[in-house]
Design brief:
By secondary structure, the protein is an alpha/beta fold. The protein folds into two domains: 62 residues, Transferase, Pyrimidine Nucleoside Phosphorylase, Chain A, domain 3, CATH 1.20.970; 247 residues, 3-Layer(aba) Sandwich (Pyrimidine Nucleoside Phosphorylase, Chain A, domain 2), CATH 3.40.1030. Helix 3 crosses helix 9 and helix 5 crosses helix 15.
């Protein structure tokens, strides 16, 4: 580690292979907490580079619990978090909406970091018990069209880093890695990011990895399409900017997406969306994010077609049924 630190302190970067080796050694417990903290701190002072991200990802995926879901070829819908907006669980609602529309979704997620309720919080609230049992995961995909992969269970190698990250108390490059280390290694991913710098980084990563992707960001700082401001989308076809009106929706107020002060409050909004009892703003935010996820999976479909499929999945109750079948499988 001393050699690596000196290399980084001299403004040199790591190769993909060096980055993978360091991450493997961190996971194996070969460095003490002070060395890990020093290593992480380097990337708080300068941007992480493409080869470094991919090298870290290579190592973590190599050590992850195997999860071959190739027969389902599922989509992953995920956000980086960190936007500080404390929205309700828009992306998780979108997952069940997409599943209700007939597509398979394997979401890789975690507890909330900057919001009251992350995807793991809300699903656990309704009784889901997280697992890496491949039989449970496959059965849920088959019956519900949705499976959930709780990140800490899937990536046990991260446990040596957890105390250091907690003590530092700031966002680190491990937050960048979160969306990239699903053991499913999905060919399709719809990702929400909280700023344009992150959008550029992930665009380079996905292009390098050959993933079918959409990256979404609302310019007022949301890591999803919030309909509160102009949003930017990058995907395999290029870069696009839309106002809410161009997407066919009214501009909404930020407070209309508020997720509440407790997991209980966030869970109530979540189930209201699936029960068709949500506000128009809440429903529209879910429909538009689900639509772009569907288009990520089926790029030949128009956005209008994808919006209609998402809206129908909520209106006819198939999104709620997907959720109920998922919970039954994960009890």
């Amino acid at each position: 580690m001393k050699q690596i630190l000196n290399q980084l302190f001299n403004h040199q970067s790591l190769t993909r292979e060096e980055a993978a080796a360091v991450m493997t050694n961190i996971a194996a417990g070969k460095y003490n907490e002070s060395e890990i903290a020093a290593f992480i701190s380097v990337f708080l002072m300068r941007s992480i580079e493409l080869n470094e991200v991919i090298g870290f990802r290579d190592a973590l995926l190599e050590m992850a619990i195997p999860m071959d879901l190739s027969e389902f070829d599922p989509l992953d819908i995920v956000g980086t978090g960190g936007d500080g907006k404390n929205t309700f669980n828009i992306s998780t609602c979108s997952c069940f909406t997409v599943a209700g529309a007939g597509y398979t979704v394997a979401k890789h997620g975690n507890y909330g970091a900057t919001s009251v309720s992350g995807s793991s919080n809300v699903l656990e609230y309704f009784g889901a018990k997280f697992t890496t049992d491949i039989n449970v995961v496959k059965r849920s995909l088959d019956e519900a069209g949705f499976a959930y992969l709780h990140a800490p269970f899937c990536n046990p190698a991260m446990k040596n880093v957890a105390p250091v990250r907690k003590n530092l108390g700031v966002r680190t490059f491990f937050n960048v890695l979160g969306p990239l280390i699903s053991p499913v290694r999905p060919h399709y991913q719809c990702l929400g990011v909280y700023n344009l710098k992150m959008m550029r980084l992930y665009t380079y990563i996905y292009q390098n990895l050959g993933v079918n992707y959409s990256i979404v960001h609302s310019l007022d700082g949301y890591d999803e399409i919030s309909l509160t401001d102009v949003c930017k989308i990058t995907n395999n076809a290029g870069e696009f900017v839309f106002t809410p009106e161009q997407l066919g929706f009214k501009t909404i107020r930020q407070e209309e997406l508020w997720g509440g002060n407790t997991v209980d409050e966030a869970a109530k909004i979540f189930i209201n969306v699936l029960d068709n009892k949500a506000t128009e703003a809440q429903r529209n935010a879910v429909v538009v994010n689900a639509a772009f996820a569907i288009q990520t999976r089926c790029p030949m479909k128009t956005l209008e077609q994808c919006k209609a499929e998402a809206a129908d999945a909520l209106a006819n109750g198939s999104a709620k049924k997907a959720f109920e079948k998922f919970v039954d499988n994960y009890k």
